[in-house]
Design brief:
- The chain crosses the membrane at residues 312-338, 350-370.
- The protein has 2 domains: 3-297, Up-down Bundle (Methane Monooxygenase Hydroxylase, Chain G, domain 1); 349-411, no CATH class.
- It is 61% helix and 11% strand.
- It is rod-shaped.
- The protein contains 11 helices and 5 strands.
- The termini are far apart.
- Strands 1, 2, 3, 4 and 5 form a 5-stranded antiparallel sheet that branches.
- Residues 57-72 and 423-428 have low confidence and may be disordered.
- The longest helix has 91 residues, at 244-334.
- The chain has helices spanning 3-13, 17-24, 63-71, 125-137, 139-147, 152-186, 192-225, 244-334, 349-369, 388-392, 394-418; strands at residues 29-36, 40-54, 81-83, 91-105, 110-114.
- It is an alpha+beta fold.
Length: 428
């Protein structure tokens, strides 16, 4: 509608411009205005609810926009949540708007509803009218409308429409989460990353749905806490009609029924969020197990490579010793400043050995004595390290150990010669 038509409509029914601005911008709101005790008032409810829509069915939702959104999987909770199915029955959980302005009076009440453009896929005015009309034809609501003159019950039927849409959407989401759980269990390792991204996207929408359900509950409480002032003039009604107190009590009962159903929906949403978290933990655990197996294989390969490198280094060292040690030894001999090599010198080969042999023995003694990892006699694993005196006297201990070992071996051999083995003779 154009601005001039909205202005005419607002002037005719005395509607605040905020109703149209909040409806155009999908802003949740609930308020009462133009309160006239004994005559009537105006109440406004604007809320967003969830609705299921099949993609394969022809509808007002543009197919190019559906395809574009499928490609762009950015997490935007304001957009629809696409639930792809392998069976081809894909659907989308989209937001829908319920914007109602109700004029309650003694003589006649009017309901004005705002509906988004048909391209958004929301509930049309014709569809909402048919839903309210079908509800009015049911036995339960027909009997209620006959005994009560409060038009607020008609507003409750509109709120029930939003509740049914919520129930259908969450049921569809539950089935999709069950399919995702089976897919995660049976999915191969290289596709788990895509599955976890899909689960994270669904959980982000579930968190957003919590705020929508909270707005829905606030709207129902607002209806419960805002009685119709026109019922004061109808307190003494005709015979067979509910009194003001009975009608208020009946309205309270219907609102409590709605609130209990909203609590059930919130519990269902919370359980689905928890179940989705378990599925995500399962996917992450599977990925971690696969990574651990890969790391184990890499560790074994690295250990094999390390052993090969050690063998190559050992062979290189042996080759170096075999090639360089003889030549270095010969070069050292010819470089010695002794009389055999250099007649003009004063040193002899005996002088060389007199210095080299003690120095070699002292080096061996020092290396073994000051080695903290060396095991000494009398020192076992788990006991304190040997003292410095024990370390410095290791040659004496080693000689004693060898001497005692030889002595014990000789004594055992002598005892074996003196005591020949006894043979048993059997009588025939």
């Amino acid at each position: 509608m154009s601005g001039s038509i909205l202005q005419m409509l607002g002037t005719l029914y005395n509607i605040e411009p905020f109703f149209f601005s909040s409806s155009l911008n999908w802003i949740p709101s609930r308020y009462q205005e133009d309160l006239q005790p004994g005559k009537g008032d105006h109440i406004t409810i604007t809320l967003t609810f969830l609705r299921k829509m099949k993609i394969d069915n022809p509808g007002p939702y543009p197919h190019d926009q559906v395809a574009t959104t499928k490609v762009n999987r950015g997490i935007n909770t304001q957009d629809g949540l696409y639930l792809d199915s392998d069976s081809g029955n894909s659907s989308v959980l989209c937001r829908d708007l319920l914007a109602v302005h109700m004029v309650r009076s003694v003589t006649r009440s009017t309901i004005i509803s705002y509906h988004p453009s048909p391209t958004s896929g929301g509930t049309s005015a014709k569809n909402l009218y048919s839903r309210v009309h079908l509800a009015g034809q049911s036995v339960y609501w027909t009997n209620l409308f006959k005994v009560s003159r409060d038009p607020t019950f008609v507003l409750l039927t509109i709120l029930w429409h939003a509740l049914y849409a919520w129930d259908e959407a969450l049921t569809c989401l539950y089935e999709h989460i069950s399919d995702q759980e089976s897919a995660v269990i049976n999915t191969k390792d290289n596709k788990l990353t895509l599955r976890t991204q899909e689960l994270h996207r669904i959980r982000a929408h579930l968190l957003y749905y919590a705020s929508l359900l909270d707005d829905f509950k606030k709207s129902v409480k607002f209806v419960l806490e805002t009685p119709n002032p026109a019922m004061d003039a109808l307190e003494h009604g005709t015979e067979g009609m509910l009194t003001k107190e009975d009608s208020a009590e009946r309205l309270k009962t219907e609102c409590n029924n709605l609130l209990s159903e909203i609590d059930r929906l919130e519990m269902s949403r919370s359980n689905q969020s928890k179940r989705l978290k378990n599925i995500m933990n399962l996917a992450f655990a599977t990925v971690n197990i696969d990574d651990s197996k890969t790391m184990q294989v890499l560790t074994k390969a690295a250990a094999q490579d390390s052993a090969a490198m050690k063998q190559i280094a050992y062979l290189t060292m042996i080759l170096h010793v075999l090639l360089s040690l003889p030549s270095s030894f010969i070069a050292g001999i010819f470089g010695m400043n002794i009389t055999i090599i250099n007649p003009s010198s004063v040193g002899t080969l005996a002088h060389y050995f007199a210095v080299a042999v003690p120095m070699t023995l002292m080096t061996i003694w020092a290396v073994v004595a000051f080695n903290p990892k060396k095991d000494y006699a009398g020192v076992t694993e788990g006991q304190p390290e040997a003292s410095y005196s024990t370390r410095l006297a290791w040659p004496v201990r080693a000689w004693k150990s060898v001497f005692l070992s030889r002595t014990s071996n000789a004594q055992r051999d002598l005892e074996a010669q003196e005591d020949p083995p006894a043979y048993s003779h059997s009588d025939h």
